[in-house]
Amino acid sequence: MSQRTPSLTLISTDTLPTRHAVVGASDSYRVVIAHRMSDCAAAWRLLEQQSSPAIFQTHDWLACWMETVGKAQNAEPRIALVRDDNARLVMILPLMLRTHMGMPVLHWMAEEDADYHAPLALPDFAQTCTGSMMRDILMRVANQVPDAAALCLSKTASEFAGIRAPLSLMPHAPHPSAAHAITLTGDNFEDFYAAARSKSTRKRDRQRRRQLEKHGPVSFEVADTPMRRHQMIDEILAQKAIWLKARGICDPFAQDGVYAFLHRLVDDQAICKQLHISALTVNGEIMAGNMGYVQNERFYAVIGSVTDGDLARHSPGVLHLHELFKWCFANGVKVFDLTVGDEGYKKEWCDSRLDLIDIHVPLSMGGVALTSIARARGYLKRKVKASPRLFTLATDARRLVNRALGQ
């Protein structure tokens, strides 16, 4: 099959891919597509050391995902390795090919299950990369995956750790949600807490803890054995499922392969060292829990849960968050990443915001329809989230529909 060059515009869908050689600013770069995680494991891990990516872009995390969720979804790795004219690996795009709307589409690996995405890139390459270079590199990727109908990269980070993401140079649309993080300033939790919260708020938090203590000993537990980690994951997911159902939200952790993926992380010898599972308990019963990761002095709080019982009125989730902060100060963590989502409590705490973007590129006639629908869906989500009235109406409608369907 002859090569093709896709049109990389998000505004017009008139111009479809034409077939000719790629010539442009990226002539000094070469792209190779790996079809197996193992084919590029050593190179990937080396680039991790040089680029310090988020946990969601590490080889070991994504390998666990591919072996569980990826297999359940029939996803096929299409990992793009970009080298310069000195054969130096400067960037990896961890992509996969998966059927969507009946067409093969290039997505980020773990598209739904990673909180945000980005390529791994050497800092000097990321800082000097131009829009035309990135466009030509994506052309080369598309040429080597000729059956792809579209390139759909959602929840793409615009930057990470202060370094601009090369893909932010491409035409894009804002993702409906952003990611948020907290800089853990000061030498200890007490000073940080006093600076971050008002005197009245701190008093109310002490009252909440005293109310919980009336029902038994309150403890903070970090699971330190594989058996306890597996148990805590099950309890956190059970609490989360109840919370989601009450709000009419489909449970993403009940999707094919996700349960196996989360438990696989516990058993994987490489990634388990970065896994952090904890809970606030009363009389040994979990009132609030969290599954997260610790990497490069950064704590990723990914899956949080809280009881739906009577003690929920004492805000055990808030108290658990305080305990996590204390653990972070004691263990040298500098950034507490609350990841994607615009919940109110994040805005109360967070001092940094990571804007996420969506990139949709049609590579065929069918891809035009697919990317047009994806862009329209993203636009509607942004409008709904920006309007409290529309958001409330949409939430109520979703709850009614899911209840009618028995979900």
From TrEMBL:
<dbReference type="GO" id="GO:0016740">
    <property type="term" value="F:transferase activity"/>
</dbReference>
<protein>
    <submittedName>
        <fullName>GNAT family N-acetyltransferase</fullName>
    </submittedName>
</protein>
<keyword id="KW-0808">Transferase</keyword>
<feature type="domain" description="BioF2-like acetyltransferase">
    <location>
        <begin position="199"/>
        <end position="347"/>
    </location>
</feature>
<dbReference type="Pfam" id="PF13480">
    <property type="entry name" value="Acetyltransf_6"/>
</dbReference>
<dbReference type="InterPro" id="IPR038740">
    <property type="entry name" value="BioF2-like_GNAT_dom"/>
</dbReference>
<dbReference type="InterPro" id="IPR016181">
    <property type="entry name" value="Acyl_CoA_acyltransferase"/>
</dbReference>
